[in-house]
Amino acid sequence: MDTVVARTILSLTGPGIVLTFSLAFAVFWLIERRLLYLPVLALSCLLFTLGSLSQILGWPPGVGANALVSGAFYTLAVLLTVQGILLRAEKPFNWWLCLAVFAIIEALFWYFFYVDRNLTARIYVQHFGYGLIMISATVPLAKRPAPRPVDRVLFWVLLLFALHFFPRTLLTTANWIAPGVAAFANSLFWQAMLFSVGLLAAVLALTLLFAAFSDVLHDLRRERDYDALTGVLNRRGFGDRIDTELPVIDNPVSLVLCDIDHFKSINDLYGHDQGDVVLREVGKVLRQNARKHDIIGRLGGEEFAILMPDTDVEAALQFAERLRAAVEAHHYGLPDGATGVTASFGVATREPSESWNALFKNADTRLYVAKRGGRNRVVNQDNTLP
Questions:
Q1: Beta strands 343-349; 378-379: pairing state
Q2: pTM of the complete model
Q3: Does the annotation mark 302 as catalytic?
């Protein structure tokens, strides 16, 4: 009797840990409501706990009913875990597909118990099915552009969790003692499943909690460093990036300053709401035309800056001219008959050992020359483009 009690207590340890993670995800979501994947993960952990308790405590009674109920809890838990991970990656999972997969697995459970009773088949359906569901979630994660380190860790943990179902099931199902509930509870398969699933589920849950914490920090940094209106770095964020990256760049570096022409007139004539639209659209034009490693910032008001690593004088000048034409050609939703939006540009390339202040002063001086010379033009130390 003592052995049975000890085994039951040991079996309950895993569900207890997973339930703790469910509460952690729920509390974290109450603190940070924007992370909509957190309640999904909280529910998936709760369903996994209920599935484990159903099996361990034998509720509902009867092998067939217990297999169907616990299997339903487990299947829903796996599907919601995948859904939560994909929601975090902004790749929503197909809910109809989830329901179809759930129905298929439950139907196979019912068939291999009530029609063709086959415990091995039920185990293969359940564990191979879960492995395939999780592997399917790793595909869109692998295609995610520029993942953060936590995203790569999550990808590999999820893939390991998915793949472990196959060798562990194949290696342990051959070691059953005999069919029957008591024999199954003491089988190598059941013991290996409790250990491996509990361990990897805890690792996956920890990784997801860390990813949620990382997401919150990422959002806080973004709110601190980015201009909400234009989507580019604000003055502080731009300055921090310059302080971090400029000292370690040895190749030519160019700075392009951009100032929207007659922006005060836009606000005066059409209102500040329309002025905000112009600022937002200019920010969009800058982001669309800059390279991935260029650093774009809004320095204040209608003035923007683009720092271009590995860019010499001619390349920066050509880029600024393309940008000038793009700003002029863009549609800003101004009233019919309104004067189009244009911008002036000052371009400077850093000399050896030149400081940021000197580089900025050179570009700012050329921006002033562009505005004084008629606006809607690019000025560089060597030439002026109308």
A1: parallel
A2: 0.70
A3: yes
